[in-house]
Amino acid sequence: MTEVAGEDTTGSGEDARKPVNAAPPSGKTQLRVGRLVKAHGLKGAIKLELYTDDPDGRFVPGATFTLQVPESSPWHGKPLTVRDFRWMNSHPVAFFEGVDDRSTAEELIRAILWIDEDTQSASDEEDAWFDHQLVGLDVVRDGAVVGRVARVEHLPAQDLLIVRVGDDEVLVPFVKAIVPEVDVPGGRVVVTPPPGLFEDLPEEPAEEAPAAVQQADEADTED
Predict the structure, then answer these.
(1) Taking the domain 23-116, which CATH number applies?
(2) Are 191 and 139 in contact (CB under 8 A)?
């Protein structure tokens, strides 16, 4: 089972890599699986932004989440338990215990839902990693280190490794054709990028010529 940041963000096709987002709000490692985005109807239903590719497995009745909300929120420090989960017009909608009307639902808008990291389920899935496992890995091309993974971005079409190269960043599609090897114990990912992906970085500005050279050039021009 894979938790990712962004709805339907596992990429398309068999070659899609699967980062698993894991950014804990507290000391322990947790997975971010969703965000509450909008009250739906008058009976406490809330639309979700999903950060998991298995919502029907995560949002089962009785599933309990840790809430990330401001300290001023009446829900701060309280868990949130699923009462029902369904799809309405292709949108994920959940009902939670203690949320029985629209007013209460609106108190939870923008809250982020977390669960304890299930390392076993992630390790059992081939080609699946948590974001924190990827960040900091060296990026190797043709045997040489060309940069380091700064972060992972999750887009509807595919995931991207954001590679820090000096003061610049390169967006590398996280697919097997371009990232054929991920070696977390070895601290590296191997990339085989298409031509131009790393070569198109802006060049360093040329240093200004010394004043004496500039004057000589001007004299030659006058002659």
Answers:
(1) 2.40.30.60
(2) yes
3 state DSSP class of 212 = helix
Closest CA relative to residue 127, chosen from 53, 17, 13 = 17
Separation of alpha carbons 152 and 179, rounded Å? 13
- Please give the pLDDT value at position 220: 53
pLDDT at 74: 94
Confidence (pLDDT) at 127: 64
For 36-82, write each residue's pLDDT tens digit.
999 999 999 999 998 887 888 889 999 999 999 999 999 999 999 99
- C-alpha span between 8 and 171 (Å, rounded): 19
What long-range pairs does 94-100 form, CB within 8 A, spacing at least 24?
94/45, 94/46, 94/48, 94/59, 95/43, 95/44, 95/45, 95/46, 96/44, 96/46, 99/44, 99/46, 100/43, 100/44
Computed over every residue of the chain, the mean pLDDT equals 78
Q: Are strands 128-130 and 138-141 parallel, antiparallel or unpaired?
A: unpaired
Q: What is the pLDDT of residue 60?
A: 92
* Helix, strand, coil content of the chain in percent (nearest 5): 15, 40, 45
Domain ranges for the chain, please list them. 23-116, 132-190
**What is the pLDDT at residue 142?**
92
Under 8 Å between Cβ of 149 and 172: no
CATH superfamily of 132-190: PRC-barrel domain (2.30.30.240)
Q: What is the mean pLDDT of residues 108-114?
A: 93
Domains 23-116 and 132-190 share a fold: no
